[in-house]
Amino acid sequence: MPEAEAAMPFDAFEGLVLCIEDDPVGMAMVEAIVADFPQVRLLKAGSGREGVRLALAERPDLVLLDMRLPDISGLDVVRALSAAIAEQGLRVVLLTADTFSIEVVKAMSLGAREYWPKPLTHAKAAEGMQRLLALREGGSPA
Question: What was the pLDDT predicted at 20?
Fold first, then answer.
């Protein structure tokens, strides 16, 4: 990552992030991370179906997706969003406490961009958001 990009303040990043997460602790962690980015708005969904609906209606710049949801799996969410991933460049990051699994491999093959293991660390997630939101601003992929 170029030094100029690494030194960019968090308020230089804009966008809309959708977090699909049913665990209140996981959602609170994402809220704390997004709070560091004053120009980024957070949408929250507590179920997979609600997340799919919001992703298709709101067209977020980034989706943070828990792989284990109460109604449908994270893999099913990625399947439902596959056209938006392919045609609109929707960026999906998988969040899971599971070790790298076949479900994660399948979701990545359908277009999910990254896999972030839980528990999330503030530093890693903030760096990832910076990198992925920079793509929205026309930056080069990492």
Answer: 98
Please state which CATH number belongs to domain 14-135.
3.40.50.2300
**Can you tell me the distance from the alpha carbon of 30 to that of 24, in angstroms, rounded to the nearest whole number?**
10
Cis previous bond, 119, omega within 30:
yes
How far is residue 54's CA from residue 48's CA, in Å, rounded to a whole number? 10
How far is the CA of 61 from the CAs of 13, 72, 93, 98, in angstroms?
11, 22, 11, 25
Percent of the chain clearing pLDDT 90 (strictly above): 78
Residue pair 133/91 in contact by the 8 Å Cβ criterion? no
User: From CA 60, how far away is CA 81, in angstroms rounded?
Assistant: 12
**Eight-state DSSP code of residue 102:** H
Domain boundaries, the chain: 14-135
Sheet containing 40-45, strands listed edge to edge, beginning at the edge strand earlier in sequence: 40-45, 15-20, 62-66, 92-96, 114-117
d(CA 128, CA 131): 5
